């Protein structure tokens, strides 16, 4: 870290952007009428965990990027007076608290993405709300066990400026599922400088096994770059393409991209097998469920014969 990094004031990160306009095709037909972000992890929709993570990192201004057939997301973070009154009349205080919790979490805003044209386009939809402020981008497919990662990313951004991505080491056969980063070390063990980003490379072309996962802290300089970023694979505007362009610019232009190396627990709820594993994992941690569930699981595994 140089003297400039230590003395230059960088604006605080106070806003989070959560893209939630995807079609959820991997979970059809369940997602035909129900947003994939509302699929439950035990008894709480996945997107609520993401908003809770933002709030735990002191980001209480949350913008959800939604689309058609996503009204239930807005309803979830709104009050439900009839339900509240019914629970209150029954004296069901525990469920009443659970129903009130989403509406009390944060100041939640919404903007619609007319058509899903990639993560970069979703982030562009946040431009009017975010303005000239740095902001976090949090993907609902990735559940992170605690807010420590996001807090660390915000700390790195406020110290160094520029943008920050979360990086997790994956197996070689998995690199084609992610954007992968070429990195250079810094004087902090868990912080690197990103010099290149390749979206979904083959194992032979991947610059490393460090994959970009669904947490970003972006400098507002990302917006003019995204406006000029042409569609890439699948006709989508890729956020990684814009971040790479920023990485090539100097600090004066909002450039530099750092990565925080994450070695904690991440749950990928974007595919069926990992979604089921996530539900089982979260259920086994619940005191009200584990006592009954764990013995059943052990018995099931003992007598199960693989296909």
Count of structural domains:
1
Largest sheet: 5 strands, mixed, barrel
Assign the CATH superfamily: Spore Coat Polysaccharide Biosynthesis Protein SpsA, Chain A
| Helix segment tally | 12
CATH topology: Spore Coat Polysaccharide Biosynthesis Protein SpsA, Chain A
Low-confidence stretches: 1-8
- Can you count the beta strands? 13
**Topology order in helix (H) and strand (E) letters:** HEEEHEHHHEHHEEHEEEEHHEEHH
Counting helices, strands and paired strands, the structural category is alpha/beta
Report the helical percentage: 25-40%
Report the end-to-end length measured between terminal Cα atoms.
55 Å
> Main sheet: which strands, in order across?
8-11-9-10-12
Pfam family, one: NTP_transferase
EC number: 2.7.7.9
Family: Belongs to the UDPGP type 2 family.
Keywords: Nucleotidyltransferase, Transferase
Would you kindly provide a brief summary of this structure?
The protein has twelve helices and 13 strands. It has helices spanning 3-7, 46-56, 71-76, 81-90, 93-105, 119-124, 127-130, 148-160, 222-227, 239-247, 272-284, 287-303; strands spanning 15-19, 40-41, 44-45, 61-66, 107-112, 135-138, 142-144, 163-169, 179-185, 191-199, 210-218, 257-261, 266-268.
Describe this structure in words.
It is a single chain. The chain has 307 residues and is of the alpha/beta class. The protein is built from twelve helices and 13 strands. It has one domain (13-270): Spore Coat Polysaccharide Biosynthesis Protein SpsA, Chain A (Alpha-Beta Complex). It is 37% helix and 22% strand. It has a five-stranded mixed β-barrel. Strands 2-3 form a two-stranded antiparallel ribbon. A two-stranded antiparallel sheet has the order 7-13. The longest helix has 17 residues, at 287-303. The termini are far apart. The relative contact order is 0.15.
